[in-house]
Amino acid sequence: MTGMTKTVEEMLSRLENNSKSELSLVRALAEAIRRVDDQMLHELRNLSLQHELRRESILDELQTLATRLCHLPARPTPSAIRAAIDQPALAQKRANAETVDAGDVVGNGTGADWRQAAQNIQDDLDFAFSAPPPPRH
User: Poorest-confidence range of 21-25, 79-83, 122-126?
Assistant: First the structure.
């Protein structure tokens, strides 16, 4: 029995040593994981800071662009646009009047209405330049 007691004591001693070595390995692993977590958190914060700096830089560029756009020459008034559109139409009316005076037949009435086309262009311009700005995110 003495041999068995000695064997049990040796086994207990080995178990204790194994337990201590495994405990030290677990503690070392926990410390390594903690260091990696701290490093990752630090890098994530740096990345977030860099993103914010880039975002602010882009926003500043956009604001500068918006300021420059406000300094562009003023758009012509709608009456000036209509006058510019009507000038070719007046020349066409004169040409038609001259051909009528010469005895020619003026079209068959199937042509498009230039007044409606001019109004459509004006409506498109008004819509494009009066649309509300896109939402800011």
Answer: 79-83
